[in-house]
Amino acid sequence: MRYIIYGAGAIGGTIGAGLFEAGRDVVLIARGDHGRAIKSGGLRFGTPRGGWRTLPIPVVERPDELTIGAGDLVILAMKSQDTAGALEALSLVAPADVPVACAQNGVENERLALRHFANVHGICVRMPSVYLEPGVVRVHEVESHGICDIGRYPRGLDDLDRAVAADFNAGSMLSDALDDVMALKYAKLALNVTNVLDAAIGRDRVDPASTTLSKRARAEALAVFAAAGITVSTHADPRTASRTRVAVEGAGHAGGSAYQSLARNTGRLEADYLNGEVVLLGRLHGIPTPANDALVDLAKRLIKHRTPAGSLTIADVEAGLP
Length: 322
Fold this sequence. Notes:
Elements: E1 2-6, H1 10-21, E2 25-29, H2 32-41, E3 43-47, E4 51-55, E5 59-60, E6 72-76, H3 83-91, E7 100-102, H4 109-114, E8 120-126, E9 129-133, E10 136-139, E11 146-152, H5 159-170, E12 173-174, H6 181-192, H7 195-201, H8 212-227, H9 257-263, H10 275-285, H11 290-304, H12 314-319
Parallel strand pairs: 1-2, 1-6, 2-5, 3-10, 6-7, 7-8, 11-12
Antiparallel strand pairs: 3-4, 8-11, 9-10
């Protein structure tokens, strides 16, 4: 099987690196300066145990530079706001039966993929990886690169899921094939509603997840999931108990995905597909979601004013709430 990693940032770069180092057939799709840096000098990849190494992973900028078909698996790893455009480009060159797996936050990507492709899978990623400069990705977990569970969308599992899980495990990523991976992704979404707050205030002064605003946002998420009849995993994962995060040769973990997007000044954040999913379900089911509404608005203000990542305090944030 050839793994086509579409979006080679923090998550996609780490997945691609892990599979490549395990001897699997991997090609990255990475655009702009990041793709050019990988093409010219390889992917610079760092881990706590292995340190830094340069991996000569093949890379292209666009799907139409590849011949995609039988034996390929496309793993989407771009931010959710870029998924629709990526799928449109992919659908022009890939057959509708090529398997597509979404290694992304939120729960909308799989639904978008199913509009174009019949064989869609979800991957629930829990991975402390960082991408802040072109051509360079690092991951901070000691025991493995992280957790990447996989299953079919909307539910079920098949031989592909089992094969991918085995390859992920071989590539230092803990992975189980699950028959209801979306229940796990909804549980992760309830945690990801704090991402934009992490981007705003960082983690040096206060843990964003411990704030009253975060707790309210999570409670709203669980309430609207229940109202919508959505199954949310409550399974205590024993694999998370022994996870240790450390620096990679002096470079610490720089914050979550939204923090990194703000730090790279990408001009876009994923809040519309995280907090916005909660807001959408709340409106559909008549449940107010003021905390998540406020966090969607916060994301827009961070982008509008080009606020540096981690530069606000929780008091600054709360002062700006309606």
